[in-house]
Design goal:
This protein has 504 residues and is an alpha/beta fold. It is built from 17 helices and 15 strands. 37% of the residues are buried.
């Protein structure tokens, strides 16, 4: 007889209202599949799990289980909390008794997290928090750079060219007390020019619809020129300069979900040689105050220099807010490291910098959606294609056609783990591990093919050499890379091709 916990019963009942495809996808949440990468990615020590379609259903999964965790002040419908997760489960434990039933794996607030040796499942505290955080903003604001800095890992490619990111990319931060699911999205485009851009905006809208917290990334120039001594209301004039777009700004203003604004690239307007956090530049102060005027209820407006990496003081402060549920995180100390408080960083009603209790309140209570060592939903093939595309941007620079697409045709990893598998042998020879990758670079016109290939094939040779180095650093093994260039006319406007390439 199959024994199910109350938690499992509720999930299974809820799943019956979905299509078979949706149920099969949701079933992967938090568990490795038969196709999962069960070995650590060398150099990254993270596991990459399939399927790539998971993010689109995470919001649905959270809605299915939201009745277990009540609602907070940020809930869309404004309902007052009913039963907490623990109270509901306690009632179910006492009212639904039958032979062989497994008790729910949720502890009380006073209990420690323990491990069930029989099934090796970690018992999750009822104070655990899990949030879907959507990173959004106009192109070239540093969204992918910020994602990499928060994760302390190079997951998303980042270049100085706008619209580098074309897909939603999920990166997960997991601790014993929190799981933060960060989704990097393509830059917001007001009027898409072709079907590819329409598909990219569908990705943005889907991520916005399902998120718990908005993380708006802008830069120091987004507030427009502002006369600090003027009483004139020029909000309408500057809406298009806010680094988010007028339509999205209206959605944020009407949303009943927490918003954090990141004012990135503050180092570009430094007034002195001092740290921008020691002496906040006037332009950055103006931008912070401008954002506060249009989003008065935003939880925080944090200045950052994401390009400085994970140890940047602004990035550390932002990470502390997101992980405020962890007992070893001190939100106040991280914010004080930003230097003298700037008017507008926090709401006037908050009374100053937030405490840990206030910061963690913006994150919903709930169990983790993913396994503890889950890092991203993207496959190795996808990461390889993105690294090659990043190399194209860096090598061709302004010559790089925006229509370039990279498709991985072959990804042979049959020899990927030779060094590991033969480690116990007495005559073991290292450096035998290898991945063979065959990639196709698509352009739309013959003239663009000539640009990518270069005179005598020199450009594509340079791209191959540089891309191979990136791939070897990422995968931690030797890479054999074969690049070819092909003309695929008007693929950006071809609906069937966009579906095939994963954009629609």
């Amino acid at each position: 007889m199959m024994c199910l916990s109350i938690h499992h019963v509720f999930t299974l009942v809820a799943l019956t209202s979905f299509s078979a495809a949706a149920r099969s996808t949701i079933a992967f949440v938090g568990k490795p599949t038969s196709q999962s990468h069960n070995r650590h990615t060398a150099g990254h020590h993270k596991k990459l799990y399939l399927p790539s379609s998971l993010p689109s259903t995470v919001g649905a999964y959270k809605r299915l289980t939201s009745h277990l965790y009540g609602k907070d002040k940020y809930a869309n419908d404004g309902d007052t909390p009913k039963l907490t997760q623990n109270e509901l489960l306690l009632q179910l434990e006492t009212k639904l008794e039958y032979d062989g039933r497994i008790s729910s794996k949720v502890t009380s607030d006073d209990d420690d997290e323990t491990t069930d040796d029989d099934n090796e499942e970690t018992v999750i505290s009822s104070t655990h928090r899990c949030a879907l955080v959507t990173i959004l903003g106009l192109p070239n604001m540093g969204k992918s750079t910020l994602l990499n800095a928060l994760l302390s890992d190079d997951l998303a490619i980042a270049t100085n060219r706008p619209q580098t990111t074309r897909h939603a990319i999920l990166g997960v931060m997991t601790t014993d007390h929190s799981q933060i699911c960060l989704t990097d999205t393509p830059g917001i485009i007001g009027s898409p020019a072709y079907r590819l851009q329409e598909g990219m905006m569908d990705v943005v809208n889907g991520a916005v619809r399902d998120c718990d917290v908005f993380l708006v990334v802008t830069d120091v120039y987004s507030g427009g020129k502002m006369d600090m001594d003027s009483d004139e209301d020029d909000d309408d004039e500057n809406l298009d300069k806010m680094g988010i777009g007028e339509d999205m700004l209206a959605r944020l203003q009407q949303a009943h979900r927490p918003v954090i604004v990141v004012v990135n690239k503050v180092d570009l307007v430094a007034d002195t040689d001092e740290s921008v956090y020691t002496n906040t530049p006037v332009k950055a102060i103006q931008t912070i105050q401008k954002w506060r005027s249009v989003l008065p209820d935003a939880f925080a407006i944090i200045p950052t220099c994401a390009a400085n990496g994970p140890d940047d003081q602004g990035v550390v402060a932002l990470r502390s807010i997101l992980l405020a549920n962890d007992p070893d995180v001190n939100v106040g100390a991280a914010i004080r490291n930003l230097g003298r408080p700037v008017a507008g960083m926090f709401p006037a009603s908050s009374g100053g910098m937030p405490t840990n209790e206030e910061a963690k309140a913006i994150l919903p209570l709930g169990p983790p959606l993913y396994h503890a060592d889950f890092f991203t939903d993207r496959t190795d093939r996808f990461c390889a294609s993105e690294l090659i595309r990043e190399t194209l941007f860096e090598t061709l620079k302004k010559e790089m056609p925006y229509c370039c697409e990279v498709r991985i045709e072959t990804f042979d990893e049959s020899k990927r783990y030779l060094d590991e598998d033969s480690a116990s042998g007495s005559n073991n020879k290292k450096n035998k591990s290898m991945i063979r990758i065959g990639a196709l670079i698509l352009v739309e016109r013959d003239s663009q093919k000539g640009i990518v290939v270069g005179k005598g094939g020199q450009k594509i040779k340079d791209v191959g050499m540089d891309a191979r180095k990136k791939l070897q650093a990422f995968f931690g093994v030797k890479i054999f890379l074969d690049l070819r260039v092909k003309v695929d006319k008007n693929w950006r406007s071809n609906k069937e091709k966009l579906k095939q390439y994963g954009y629609m």
